[in-house]
Amino acid sequence: MNKKLLCAALLGGLGVAQAASAQDFDDRWYVSGSTGVNFQDTDRDTEDSIFATLGFGKFLNPNWSVEAELNYQNPDKSSNPNLWWSQYGVSADARYHFRSVDSKWWPYIRMGLGWQRHEEEFVRDPAFGTPSDGFPAQHEDNNVAVNLGAGLQFDFGRVDLRTEVGTRIDFDDVQARSAQTQEDYFTDLLASVGLTVALGPEPSAPVAPAPAAPSCADADDDGDGVNNCDDKCPGSQAGQTIGPDGCPVPVSIDLKGVNFDFDKSTLRPDAVAILGEAVEILKRYPDLKVEVAGHTDSVGTDAYNQSLSERRAKAVYDYLTSNGVDAARLVGPNGYGESRPIAPNTNEDGSDNPEGRARNRRTELNVQN
User: Fold this and answer.
1) What are the boundaries of the region Disordered (predicted)?
2) CB 50 within 8 A of CB 73
3) What pLDDT digit, counting tens, does each position of 88-98 carry?
């Protein structure tokens, strides 16, 4: 046969090959069918003929597919078309597909190994005698064959279209011929067009896992610095002092040492130093609101002590406002007289307790938020 034609066909198929790159692929089993022209090797003494194939295959990955295929052709003999000549076989073939991302068509090459059977009638050479019944003699043989080819595949979803040109090297080394020259093999050229049809349901796209619901340990809806899992008082207000359970806690700015002399409402020098620190704290936390509360010991009448506690609270209030603390942040000044002692005014035996009374002569800043 014309070997130049075969080489040109194979090179033409490979010339459009592209660099392969990984992509998604349909891995369903498929059936294939094709038909085309079998250009017989001229040494066979047979005419070119139509052939058909039926296959079953699968893509192993985006680039490689494997397929089992049956083939059949029934060419006429050139010397006598009335004589029977048929060929059929089976092969296992692998195709390498040169696929590019998002491409709906791609080239491929084919390689495979198969088994071919030949069945033919022939008229025996008179020199070797004739059949006694007058019918043509028959010859049958099996042999190995090699498939090589190249083609293009077009993706239409479930159905793909294939066009292919290739060769089948048929190692038929025993022929029924009048001449005694025996060929070792024949090289047939095959050009075909066919379809592959995927079996089963359409492959479903992978379902992305639902985003994990946010954990309460990672959320702090009221912005108080305590996560929702541990927050027992959701809805805290800005500026509140919050405990580890998320609930507001009462806080007093420690004014230990802001005490007053007996029956006095004037600030002592040591009290002024402590109040200076309180001013800095209030400036550092501008959202804090505090109550200025004055207290007395138990010496004196209730009315007198109430008035004295109010004056003591007023003394601290005036100091704070005169040193830059906005009056809108201060509640009071409020006096509580002798009603809220923090230490005993008398001992257990009823005698005077000077130390306890000194601690009760005080002013406090009680945080309100």
Assistant:
1) 330-369
2) yes
3) 999 999 999 99
- DSSP sequence for 304-344: HHHHHHHHHHHHHHHHHHHTT--GGGEEEEEE-TTSS-SS-
Listed by start position, the domains of the chain span 3-198, 254-367
pLDDT digits (tens, 9 = 90+) for 117-158: 999 887 765 554 445 456 778 888 899 999 999 999 999 989
In angstroms, the Cα distances linking 108 to 78, 204, 299 are 34, 26, 109
For 187-228, write each residue's pLDDT tens digit: 999 999 999 999 988 877 677 777 777 788 778 877 777 888
Q: Do 99 and 160 contact (CB within 8 A), yes or no?
A: no
Cα 143 to the center of its chain, rounded Å: 52
**Is cis: bond before 131, omega within 30 of 0?**
no
Beta strand pairing call for 85-97 and 64-73: antiparallel
Return the CATH number of the domain spanning residue range 3-198.
2.40.160.20
Q: What is the C-alpha separation between 56 and 92, in angstroms, rounded? A: 10
Looking at this protein, which amino acid is placed at residue 222? Answer: D
Please give the Cα distance from 83 to 73 (Å, whole number).
15
- Fold (CATH) for 254-367: 60s Ribosomal Protein L30; Chain: A; (3.30.1330)
Q: What 8-state DSSP symbol labels residue 194?
A: E
Q: According to DSSP H, which parts of the chain are helical?
A: 3-14, 269-284, 302-322, 354-360
Note the pLDDT tens digit of each residue in 321-332: 999 989 998 988
